[in-house]
TrEMBL record:
Cofactor(s) this protein requires: FAD
This protein's name: D-lactate dehydrogenase (cytochrome)
Enzyme Commission code: 1.1.2.4
Catalytic activity, as annotated: (R)-lactate + 2 Fe(III)-[cytochrome c] = 2 Fe(II)-[cytochrome c] + pyruvate + 2 H(+)
Domain FAD-binding PCMH-type: 127-306
Organism: Pseudocercospora fuligena
Amino acid sequence: MPSVNRCLSALRRIRIANQTFQQSAQLRAVQQISQVRWQHAEATTTASNAEHNPPESRSGVPNKKQIKFTSESYPQIKRDSRFKELTLDDVKFFKDVLGSDNAIIDGVSQDASSELEAFRADWMRKFRGQTKLVLKPGSTEEVSKILKYCNDNKIAVNPQGGNTGLVGGSVPVFDEIVINLGRMNKIRDFDDVSGILVADAGTILEVADNHLAEHGHIFPLDLAAKGTCQIGGNVATNAGGLRLLRYGSLHGNVLGIEAVLPDGTIVNDLGKLRKNNTGYDLKQLFIGGEGTIGIITAVSILCPQRSPAVNVAYFGLSSYEKVQEAFKEAKKSLQEILSAFELMDGNSQKIMTRASGHKLPLENEYPFYCLIETSGSNEEHDSEKMSAFLEHVMGEGIVEDGVLAENETQAANLWACREGVSEASQHFGGVYKYDVSIPLPELYQLVADCRQRFIDNGMMDTEDDSKPVLDVIGYGHMGDSNLHLNVCTRWYDKEVEKALEPWVFEWIQKREGSISAEHGLGLTKKEYIGYSRNQTMIDLMKQIKNLYDPNGIMNPYKYI
C-alpha cells in the first residue's frame, strides 16, 4: 500500500488540469442514431423497437431504419376498444381551445409524420407510438378543457414532459393524443426567505435551477438530463437523481401541486406550508403516479440554500467491500456536508473512456471507483473535513488512490466520469437498462451474477464482435441503495432478453429489493410489479386508478 503522504500528495496534484474531459452534455452526443447496429431478430418485449437489420459492414454505418411501432414489438398489448378514434371535428375542437397553430401538430387532416416523430418516439429509440395529434396547452385552463372533452368522448391521452424517460411511459402505445406541457414553462413565484418555488410543470429543470442560483438557492434534484427534462415529469415519475442522499426525495420536498383530473376538474393544492395535517395528503398520489390519474400542471417545492463551498473527490478502490467501508466512513466523518456518494465499477469507466476517447483522472485502473461531493457554507471547514476523511480512508487502505478537484472546472470533469456512463453504455449498439433498489450489502452482487450468467451461456465477450453482449456494468447511488445495471450489447437480441427477464426481477425479489428505484414502471415494468408489491397493494392501486380515471383514458397500457 502506498504511504499516506504519497497518496495525499497525489490527491493534491492537479492531475486533471492538463487533461481534457468531455462534459456530460458532450458525452450525451456520443450516441448517434446512425451508429446503432442491428441483428436480424424478432422484436421482443423489452428490446429495442428499432427494426433489426444488418449493418452495411461490421465497422461501417448501418442502414437507417425506422423504429418499429411499440404495438408491433408488444403484440400482446391490444388497443382498448373503448377509446374513440380521432375525427376532424375533434381536431377542430382542440384548435379552438388552443387558438394557435403553433400549439398543435395535426396529423389527422394532413400528413405531419416528420413533425410528430419527436413526440411519439422516445430518445432511446425503443418505443414508438402512432399518435396523429400533439397538443401543447399554454395554461391549466386549456388542459382542463382538453381533458374534459377527451373524457366525455373517451379519447385516450398521453401526458408528456421532456420525454427523457427510460421505461416507455412518456410516449404513446397506439393513437393516444400526446399532451405536451413544454409551453407551460413559467416560474410563477419564488420566496427567498422560505426557499419555496412555484413553477409550471413544463419548466425545464436546468432553467429552474439557474433561476434559483440567482437567489442563492438550488433545486433539490439533479439529473444528467436536466437540460431537457421538465419538473412536472420529474415529479410525475418521482425522479431520484444524484443528490437524494443530501436533499431527500420529491415526496418530501414537494409541498403542493396543481393538477387536472381526467374529467377536467382542476385540483389547486399549491400549498407553501411545510406542515398541514388536515386530511389525506392527496398530492402524494400524483408524485410518482406517471400521469395515470391526472396531469400535473404546476409544482410548489422547497429549495435549499445553494452551498458556496463544494468539494468533489474521485478515487479508486479494490473491492465492493472497500466501497462499503468508504461510504460508512464518509457518513461518519462528513455527516451534514455529504451531498453525493456515487459508485461506478471499473467496467463502466472503461465503457465511458472507450466511447469518449479520453482518460480517467487516475493513473492506474481499479475494480471500483467512487465520486463523493460535499456541500457546505464554510470552505475552510469543509476542506479540512474532506482532507481528514481522505487521509483516514487512504491511511487505512480503504482507498487506493484518488484526486481532489481544485476548481469548478475540475469538479465538472470529475462529475462527467459519472454522468457520461449512461449514454456511453449504448454507444456500441444497444443497452438493456435496469434501475433497481437493493439492500447495500448485496447491491453490486447483481452485476457480478449477471455478468457471470452471460459468460457461462457464451453470449458475452468484450473483444469478440460475434457475441451479442459486449459487457455488463454497474453504477449508481450508494446513498439510497440505487443500482443501475446496464447490459451493453452490440445489437438487441431476443436471447439476451430471455436470459435477463424474469431472472433479474426474481433475483431482486429474493433480496426484498425493488424492480424500479427512480425511473418508474411505464410500459416495460408494468407486468412485473408483483415482484416488488404484494397483491393487496396492487389491488389498492387499481382501485385508486379506477376511482380517479374510470374511463381509463390517462396514459393507458402502463403503470398498473
